[in-house]
Here is the input.
Amino acid sequence: MLRHKTALRVAAPAVVLALTLSACGDGDDTADAKKPSKPKAKASQAKAVSGGDMATGESATGKVEEENGTVTYDITAQKVDLGTEAEAAKLVQDKADAKGMALAVAHVKYTHKSGPALTSDSDAGDGTTIWADGTRGTLLIGASDDAPGCEDPYDVESWKSGESHTFCESYLVPVNAKSLEVHWSEEDGEPYIWKFPNQ
Here is the structure.
């Protein structure tokens, strides 16, 4: 209810101002009809504070609301390992779900830059997705926790500023995808995008 009243308090003066300005004129309607209409002022558009294309090996900086408070991380998508259709079939209950699909594992490094030390598992990896040829893949939970070079986020119970961990995300993507992308975004933010060509 408080938000609703606050919104009305903010919106009401703007509506009154808009009505007042539209009612005012210089009285010369014929002169106005001959002039090409130009916008009086452009509305300022808020720029996204995050997101955009990233070069291979380039780090993005993002904030994650953790249990202990807000933590700032450097995030780097290091690589995407692409498996085979046969490997994907072993990971799904219904083998038909893996037809024409391969397991893609994104290796993403997170470095704790600032904020409180963590005393429980991190939510940093929650903003990570894998896309293939412009389409989001299908998440496979826990499929890469024990993959070489991957840490299980639930095993990281203490994380201090300056320390890094590599978490992996697993998705099913079309086996013949030409381009793989790792997306990471803050909550309600635009994604940072790392592109990896499928070799």
Remarks:
- Helices lie at 2-23, 29-34, 85-91.
- The beta strands are 52-54, 60-66, 69-82, 101-114, 128-132, 135-136, 138-139, 164-174, 179-184, 192-197.
- Residues 153 and 159 are 11 Å apart (CA to CA).
- DSSP finds three helices and ten strands in the chain.
